[in-house]
Specification:
alpha+beta, Glutaredoxin, Glycosyltransferase, five-stranded mixed beta sheet, 50% helix, 10% strand, globular
Length: 713
């Protein structure tokens, strides 16, 4: 488990107080804000104090948004925010506000949207200039301290914005208001026509087939983020019998990601993204959400293909979460930084000479051939990023060994490098607990417990869920962030949606009814606080008057949108409870998202997962019998090792089924043997006792024709 490593930041800020009076971030708990608490820039947190000062002094606001694991955020801090002269300019011309985007994704979404409308691009650090009324009028991402060629520096930009504000304020305010009006229009959805599922899925498969890189897998040709949701949907559609020719392109992507520099071959887990087409050079930060999503994708790939390396990667990534991100109490930290010792990637890269010293030259030759190490390095300054470039069979032939011997030696080699790496300075851990991301981790671990048959993952998921319930749920209200005992930020849509999904997954892994009950409570709070009468959900509950727009994200990025997961939650919960109103709410919402689903299906893969469930209906599985009996476990394993889109599952251990699940009633063990039942809609298979017969029924159920996804009149 990973203890807090950021308490020293507050101490450091105090010790440096003689040089720089503490700015207004010293009392914050966000690790990212605390990193800036000793800057000479007079940072304020987002709030009324800063807004009142901007109005009083008639100054625009400089809004800087980032996160603790962001490498370029650190670069901009070192170059500009720690520069005394630049800080003096910023303090003179602006009221400066810092925001942690992970704590406030609503603010990030609004102002990132504004910058994207202004410049066509976006990212972090996000740098936005606002009127005292918080209206954006100019922005960008990273700015160097000084201008170079066509790239304006922050020093010059600050002067230009100040001049513009003083001389042309009415024009600035008018332009800003037009931008806000545009953002508000984009947040409004209108009910569209009913979506044609078959045509939509066909379009999705055609789009992803064209978009996947034929050489290296993944999406795009330059910077590459792991497309977890896109690949998961392709796997689910493949499991249903659609586009069998697409599977090789999907596995090419999965193989490239797990063999390249995106994956940590020593410690497990994935970095956030790579800066190149071939997945070789990562930005080294490791995010909880990246790993939680990819664990689920690799588990699904294992279910579809049976390839053991996909199970291995999922297992190693789960172990990474438990070893390096799980905090005291059982919840999970949000991220590990890209930098250590003020150098990006320092913790992860190797010189060949280091490896030779650890392993000896003969053994290092085998390791270097497996992981692409050279004396000149495959990255910067003679350093190497580990890439798995040769398989065990290739290495066996080259080094006159058996594949098994190669595998055993590489295991031992990695263990020795892991021990040596543990002596290095670790990257900083952002140890705040975010409800949404912990919900994703609960899902990943619960699914890993099912597919890999490892109870310890169910225990870890249970401990995290208990932490969230005990510390972030107060009097029927969910909060977003906990750190050092402090709750902050009312829960947003993704907090509710991702947590509910995690609780449903945890119920299916453990059959503990409290998780189904808690999922119902979270979904009720979500519906009451976030529902949009026009369909779907707002991203916020509307209680914050400082937001210019009540955002509603349409398209997915590194994470699914709150709406996409919320609609899936509604459909899954309705399948358990039988409540037609819950299902109908999801179906109406799908109509609200008809335009993005039909025009750009590749941009909404998780939303299409909800459409798939709505259009085909849930697959109801009951496993009846003594949980300790080997025959019962074999039936359960047959179900869990098969990818069954839309599956809901209940366990019956006695004469009656679990409370509240009507379709499990009366489905007990027959003839003194553990028994499985599979139903979809009004069609049920015969009760079976044999795992092979169960797998056959499941395959028939998931290949069911598309249904009409319509709400009740």
């Amino acid at each position: 488990m990973q203890p807090s490593r950021l308490a020293a930041l507050a101490i450091a800020a105090a010790l440096l107080g003689a040089a720089h009076p503490a700015n207004h971030l010293a009392g914050e708990r966000s690790p990212y804000l605390l990193m800036h608490a000793d800057n000479p820039v007079h940072w304020y947190p987002w709030g009324d104090e800063a807004f009142a000062l901007a109005k009083k002094e008639n100054k625009p606001i400089l809004l800087s948004i980032g996160y603790a694991a962001c490498h370029w955020c650190h670069v901009m801090e070192r170059e500009s925010f720690e520069n005394e002269q630049i800080a003096q300019l910023l303090n003179a011309y602006f009221v400066c506000i810092k925001v942690d985007r992970e704590e406030r994704p609503d603010l990030d979404a609004i102002y990132l949207g504004a910058v994207q409308r202004l410049t066509g691009t976006g990212g972090w650090p996000l740098t936005v200039f606002l009127t005292p009324e918080r209206t954006p009028f100019f922005g960008g991402t990273y700015f160097p301290p000084e201008s170079h060629g066509s790239q304006v520096g922050l020093r010059e930009l600050a002067g230009e914005i100040h001049t513009l504000w003083v001389n042309e304020r009415p024009r600035v305010e008018e332009a800003g208001q037009k931008l806000v009006d545009d953002l508000k229009r984009r947040a409004v959805l209108e009910l569209g026509a009913e979506v044609a599922p078959a045509a939509t899925f066909t379009a999705y498969l055609e789009q992803i087939a064209r978009a996947l890189d034929p050489l290296y897998g993944g999406l795009g040709q330059e910077t590459k983020f792991p497309p977890a949701s896109e690949l998961s949907l392709a796997l689910r559609l493949h499991a249903r019998g659609a586009a069998p020719d697409l599977l090789p392109a999907v596995t090419k992507s999965l193989d490239a990601m797990m063999n390249g520099g995106l994956y940590d071959h020593l410690g497990g887990g994935f970095h956030r993204y790579t800066v190149d087409r071939a997945w070789r050079v990562p930005h080294f930060e490791k995010m909880l959400y990246t790993n939680a999503l990819l664990i689920q994708t690799y588990l699904e790939a294992y279910q579809v293909t049976g390839r053991g390396e996909y199970a291995r990667v999922a297992r190693e990534s789960c172990d990474y979460l438990l070893r390096d991100l799980q905090l005291v109490g059982g919840a999970f930290a949000g991220a590990e930084d890209a930098d250590s010792e003020a150098t990006e990637g320092r913790f992860y890269v190797w010189r060949l000479a280091e490896v030779e010293q650890l392993l000896g030259k003969e053994e290092a030759a085998l390791f270097a051939a497996a992981y692409d190490l050279t004396s000149t390095g495959n990255w910067e300054a003679g350093q190497n990023i580990l890439h798995r470039v040769a398989g065990d069979a290739q290495l066996a032939q080259r080094f006159a060994l058996t594949p098994a011997a190669v595998a055993d030696r590489l295991v031992a080699d990695r263990a020795r490098l892991v021990a040596a790496r543990a002596q290095r300075v670790r990257p900083l851990v952002d140890d705040k607990v975010l409800t949404a991301w912990n919900g994703l981790a609960i899902s990943a671990l619960a699914r890993a417990a099912e597919v890999l048959g490892e109870e310890r993952y169910a225990v870890a998921a249970t401990t995290a869920a208990e932490f969230v319930h005990d510390h972030l749920w107060r009097d029927g209200q969910l909060f977003r962030r906990w750190r050092d005992g402090e709750l902050k930020v009312v829960g947003q849509l993704d907090d509710h949606a991702f947590l509910a999904a995690g609780l449903l997954d945890l119920y299916e892994a453990t059959f503990d009814p409290r998780w189904l009950t808690q999922a119902e409570a979270v979904v009720k709070t979500m519906v009451d606080g976030f529902a949009d009468p026009a369909g779907g959900f707002f991203d916020t509950d509307g209680s914050d008057p400082t937001l210019l727009v009540r955002p509603k994200e349409l398209f997915e990025g590194a994470l699914p949108t709150g709406n996409a997961v919320a609609l899936t939650d509604l459909l899954r919960l309705a399948a358990y409870t039988g409540e037609a109103a819950t299902r109908d709410r999801a179906l109406v919402a799908l109509r609200a998202f008809a335009t993005p689903m039909t025009r750009a299906p590749l941009g909404v893969p998780y939303l299409l997962t909800a459409l798939d469930l709505a259009s085909r209906g849930a697959v109801e599985v009951v496993i009846a019998g003594d949980p300790a009996a080997a025959a019962t476990r074999r039936l359960l394993s047959a179900c869990r090792l098969t990818l069954i889109p839309g599956r809901v599952i209940a366990r019956v251990t006695g004469a009656t089924g679990p409370a509240g699940i009507a379709w499990a009633e009366g489905r007990g063990a027959r003839g003194g043997q553990p028994t499985a039942y599979v139903c979809q809609g009004s069609t049920c298979g015969l009760p079976v006792h044999d795992p092979a017969a169960l797998r056959d029924q499941l395959q028939k159920a998931i290949a069911t024709p598309l249904l009409a996804a319509k709400a009740r009149p």
